[in-house]
Amino acid sequence: MNSPEQPPLDFTNPADGLLYNFVGATSQSHLDRREHDLSIARLTELRFPKSNAPAPAVPAPPIPAVFNEQYARQLHSYLFQDVYPWAGETRADRNFQGQKKGDREGYFMSYAHYRQISPDLAAVSAQLSQENNLKGLDKDQFVKRAAYYLDHFNHIHAFREGNGRTVQALFFELGKQAGYKLDLTPEFREFNPARDTALIAESSNPRNNIGRLEGLLARLVKPRAGKEAELARDPRQARPLVEPTLAVARIEALRELKASSQAVSIRLNDLRQTKEGDPMHNALFMNVQRHITPKPEGLEQMAPALRRQVEDAAQAPAKVGNGQAQLDRFSRAIDQASLLYAGQGQQLTVLPSAPAVEPEGRKTSAAEEQQKAPEPKRRGPKM
């Protein structure tokens, strides 16, 4: 067995094919059942803490001022402490690249490359801080921005397993700070297809892709009662952004490049099949996945080769739908991403939340002070 100083390089135990776990699982269904029961119990404790409950080995994280990688790790560590020895580790800790089949034939759900998890979380959390963690918004505004950021956290998909529950806990606290109750539990079965639709981004119109997620949040978000919640919704606290920060604009451009390359692969070209009959993407999508997402700063050098592939693909008859429109979308994505990543090398500055309008007589807690400018922690596995 691996020692704490030499953690396994993978999340999966080669002896049984299951994720390393504390519950003595003998099958995938056994592990799934125990993971669900134990993590949901922790999620419930997080929302409704009991003063007389025994203290867990990993305590609930303090109230964050910045919803960053450190906080996401702490949440994951707390929620899955009873199940996984690697709770709190991101996919980057064991070099795991996430990708899943989508519901639509031929589509994959492509997450951020594991090498980009830390910089992407830093970029998204910094922009969220600039928007004062969505304080000062009415319900419609909050729903739109919460859906936007939830989609970003889902795309980053920081963890090997447990991303849905971690995001659920994170946005419950984000909503609370903004004066809203954001509880996904009543429609959690709808949450997965809604976030998947936004992630795959089949449409060239972003509103079409994220609309299902916005509709879900619109049904679930409720204003909280009380003076503190009313103060959090005070319009004077709003810090709207005219456009994304450069770092987030780059993430969005890379996502559009991936999404549009899938659409071209599926709509314009024949899809090869594996022996099992599963569709395989052609070089257009795979080149983006394998060669650009790990090091997007090199996109400028690869753009001419991608454009040549577009020219070659244009000579083939469309197999499904409007092939030329998909080619045009991919061409625009190449141009936009190349422009944004050209000369990359700027240092990202993580800004703290904008000063909030505090209730009279309220003092900042020690936990909040501690979180003003947190540094991401790397947590080793408990073995």
UniProtKB/TrEMBL annotation:
Gene3D superfamilies: Fido-like domain. It is an enzyme of class 2 (transferase). GO terms for biological process: regulation of cell division. InterPro entries: Fido (IPR003812), Fido-like_dom_sf (IPR036597). GO terms for molecular function: AMPylase activity; ATP binding. Residues 350-383 are annotated as: Disordered. Residues 359-383 have a biased composition (Basic and acidic residues). The keyword Flavoprotein does not apply. Its EC number is 2.7.7.108. Residues 67-222 form the Fido domain. Keywords: ATP-binding, Nucleotide-binding, Nucleotidyltransferase, Transferase. It catalyses: L-threonyl-[protein] + ATP = 3-O-(5'-adenylyl)-L-threonyl-[protein] + diphosphate; L-tyrosyl-[protein] + ATP = O-(5'-adenylyl)-L-tyrosyl-[protein] + diphosphate. This is protein adenylyltransferase. The lineage of its organism: Bacteria, Pseudomonadati, Bacteroidota, Cytophagia, Cytophagales.
